[in-house]
Amino acid sequence: MKKIISILAFMLILTSFSYGQSAVEPEYIATYKKLFEVLGAKDVYKEIIAQTVTTFKQRYPDIERSLWDDFEKEFLEASLDDLISMFAPVYSKYLTQEDLEETIAFYQTPSGKKLVESTPMMVKECMGIGREWGMNLGQGIAQDWIDEQRELQVSSEKEL
Q: What does the pLDDT look like over 75-113, one tens digit per residue?
């Protein structure tokens, strides 16, 4: 039952973005859609869905794989236009129509295209570096804590 509730909660979170969003001009939505396209966000969306489903398959092995496959297929076939329409109000709070147009213009330049093309590899490499940094930092903090505990133990033993 917990598994089903978790799945339903996940689906609810994904679909709840539309609530509380204000109306945005159709021109803004169309421009935002173009930005979404030039950024290669559709491919990122597909990758996120695939990774999410893989995680759920591992976390909930008792649920039939065919259900997960259907779940993934439904999300991948879902209209990204709906998602774009739900995200547009958020963007419109921070970026004007002109901001979007200028951003699109940049991403259509050779440098912008190179940035879009290189970003997934840079993020992957940086995530590895960040993971290693975090592990080292965490180990250092843990070691400091262990050392402090030992010192406290030695001090309290001396007091006895």
A: 888 777 888 889 999 999 999 999 999 999 999 999 999
Give the total number of structural domains in the chain: 2
Tell me the pLDDT tens digit for each residue of 112-134: 999 999 988 998 899 999 999 99
Contact 122, 130 (CB under 8 A): no
Domain coverage including residue 145 = 113-160
DSSP 8-class letter at 160: -
Tell me, yes or no, whether 132 and 151 share the same domain. Answer: yes
> Measured between alpha carbons, how far is 143 from 105 in angstroms, rounded to an integer?
50
As a whole number of angstroms, the distance between CA 83 and CA 1 comes to 29
Alpha-carbon distance 103 to 137, whole Å? 37
